């Protein structure tokens, strides 16, 4: 997922920046940049004197910048935790270029899920349409009894529910990822 890669890169850069600042502080304190810098206190710098001289307007500006950064971080966190790339509305192809027909993606997912759950040996199914509304992809996960004939079930799902979905959406090349997950049956208890 693209957002995961971006998050990893940004967090890596932030980590490198903070590590570099820490190493620079350790080197300065140990005298690597000269004894004059090593003997100074942290608050004894031109920057701290500037903040002291201009504190009336500088601290409110710093607080406003901190609030903006906080809002950006909250937006990023919300996007990471709660956003998905699920499609909500599918754009169907029509003969005329000016017409636009749409279909609710959850309705398609429910129909495919209902058909698959009606097959023998299927305990449950989950279906998502993901990606772009113009070029969606379908992800299907099916929980299957442990004693099921997986080859026959896979063929039935591919030639049944998934073929019906491709036909209904008029997308014979609709990319579909099908995952079959075996579930262990609980042995019957004898009292």
From TrEMBL:
Chain segments annotated as transmembrane: 57-78
Keyword line: Membrane, Transmembrane, Transmembrane helix
Name listed for the protein in its UniProt record: Alkaline shock response membrane anchor protein AmaP
Lineage: Bacteria, Bacillati, Actinomycetota, Actinomycetes, Micromonosporales
